[in-house]
Inverse folding.
């Protein structure tokens, strides 16, 4: 008899899991949850796009410092949203990519291009070698 009682409790528990909130099933709750996370990630992505546009438009060191501070705040907000994104909302991917790209753009030295860096490096490697043959 005890085994039947446990079985009934498990069945009832399984049934209750399917109707969590106001008659919604798990899939409905998950969809509502993802819709909220998608909205939050979309806002984060929009803000990252705005910061990226500002970076392209104004490259002064003061504005870069302010953009870096804004990026830190945006990354904190993103991390908080990721922490509650239990079902991997779709829009998280674009927000992740935009933040990573912005972080890369802000970490680059705006005064030197990659080509300038390579040319300077090649010149330094040739110093003392010109005209000397072994």
């Amino acid at each position: 008899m005890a085994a039947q009682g446990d079985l009934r409790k498990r069945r009832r528990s399984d049934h209750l899991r399917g109707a969590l909130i106001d008659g919604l099933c798990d899939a409905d709750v998950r969809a509502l949850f993802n819709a909220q996370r998608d909205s939050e990630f979309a806002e984060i992505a929009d803000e990252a796009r705005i910061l990226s546009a500002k970076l392209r438009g104004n490259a002064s060191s003061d504005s870069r410092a302010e953009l870096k501070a804004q990026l830190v705040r945006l990354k904190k907000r993103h991390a908080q949203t990721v922490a509650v994104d239990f079902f991997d909302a779709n829009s998280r991917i674009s927000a992740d990519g935009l933040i990573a790209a912005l972080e890369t753009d802000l970490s680059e030295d705006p005064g030197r291009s990659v080509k300038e860096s390579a040319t300077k490096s090649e010149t330094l490697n040739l110093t003392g070698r010109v005209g000397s043959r072994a």
